[in-house]
């Protein structure tokens, strides 16, 4: 059974650019959630996708957007990058519903210069 | 917003039990209480979850107060590999809210 994978591992961008991060969910999981984790803080919920539809969103501006594909893999897109977007971006997959255990990937470290 | 309160850090000796407390006074009647932990340079890892009654699994036990406004994660015998940040959280709406967590240090 393959776990949650994310790509790339590290990424450096400059302010104003756009970035796409990718996540492959664990086999059989239809729900993907994305989190932003600043250094020294807990993860902050960005949004969740269930069967290709957005199913909940945290307090993030519209320049954070996402997609989920028919194979349940997912993308996180961030436009007009700001310095404060520098963080570890985590995705987590689950069978659906927040009662269920979420399986997290190792994250993508984004640095905005 | 769903908020939880945990001590910033705790220390334990190896092979001793550890009790990690959490207050979740805003929890509603149908919110599950989840615990995750995050080892250095890794994504969070599920530990345990429960609703009302106490729960046990191979990693830990979860004791939930009768009024559900607090819970305690119990590691029965701490090992060096248990050194991590432990997060207590519950669902409000469709989102999980992580707080600052408790950094557990385990001394040999």
Care to describe what's here?
The complex is a heterodimer of chains A (113) and B (108). With 113 residues, chain A is mainly β. Chain A contains no helices and eleven strands. The radius of gyration of chain A is 13 Å and the shape is globular. The mean pLDDT of chain A is 93. In chain B, strands 1, 3, 4, 8, 9 and 10 form a six-stranded mixed sheet that branches. In chain B, strands 2-7-6-5 form a four-stranded antiparallel sheet, with no helix packed on it. Chain B starts with 8 loop residues before the first strand and ends with a strand. The chains are: A mainly beta (113), B mainly beta (108).
Briefly summarize what is shown.
The complex is a heterodimer of chains A (113) and B (108). Chain A is mostly beta strands. Helices cover 0% and strands 50% of the residues of chain A.
The major sheet of chain A is characterized as: 7 strands, mixed
State which percent range the strand residues of chain A make up. Answer: over 45%
Number of helix segments of chain A?
Answer: 0
Q: In percent, how helical is the residue content of chain A?
A: under 10%
Name the largest protein-protein interface in this structure.
A-B, 24 and 21 residues
Global morphology of chain A: globular
Element string of chain B (H = helix, E = strand) = EEEEEEEEEE
Helical amount of chain B: under 10%
Q: Which runs of chain B of at least 5 residues are low in confidence (pLDDT < 50)?
A: none
How is the secondary structure organized here?
The complex is a heterodimer of chains A (113) and B (108).
Chain A: E1 5-7, E2 10-13, E3 19-24, E4 31-37, E5 44-50, E6 53-57, E7 64-68, E8 74-78, E9 87-94, E10 103-104, E11 108-112
Parallel strand pairs in A: 2-11
Antiparallel strand pairs in A: 1-3, 3-8, 4-5, 4-9, 5-6, 7-8, 9-10, 9-11
Chain B: E1 9-13, E2 18-23, E3 33-38, E4 45-50, E5 55-56, E6 61-64, E7 70-75, E8 84-92, E9 95-96, E10 102-107
Parallel strand pairs in B: 1-10
Antiparallel strand pairs in B: 2-7, 3-4, 3-8, 5-6, 6-7, 8-9, 8-10
């Amino acid at each position: 059974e393959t776990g949650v994978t994310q790509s790339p591992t590290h990424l450096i961008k400059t302010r104003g650019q756009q970035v796409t991060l990718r996540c492959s969910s664990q086999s059989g999981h239809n729900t993907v959630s994305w989190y932003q984790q600043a250094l020294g803080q807990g993860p902050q919920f960005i949004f969740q996708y269930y069967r290709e539809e957005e199913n909940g969103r945290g307090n993030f501006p519209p320049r954070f957007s996402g997609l989920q594909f028919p194979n349940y893999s997912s993308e996180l897109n961030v436009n007009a990058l700001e310095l404060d977007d520098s963080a570890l971006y985590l995705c987590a997959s689950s069978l659906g519903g927040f009662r269920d255990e979420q399986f997290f990937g190792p994250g993508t470290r984004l640095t905005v210069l | 917003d769903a908020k939880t309160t945990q001590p910033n850090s705790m220390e334990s000796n190896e092979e001793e039990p550890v009790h990690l407390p959490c207050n979740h006074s805003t929890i509603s009647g149908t919110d599950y209480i989840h615990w995750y932990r995050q080892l250095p340079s890794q994504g969070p890892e599920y530990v345990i979850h429960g609703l009302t009654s106490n729960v046990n699994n191979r990693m830990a036990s979860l004791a939930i107060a009768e009024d559900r406004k607090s819970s305690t994660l119990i590691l029965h015998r701490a090992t060096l590999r248990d050194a991590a940040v432990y997060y207590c959280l519950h669902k409000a709406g469709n989102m999980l809210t992580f707080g600052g967590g408790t950094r557990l240090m385990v001394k040999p």
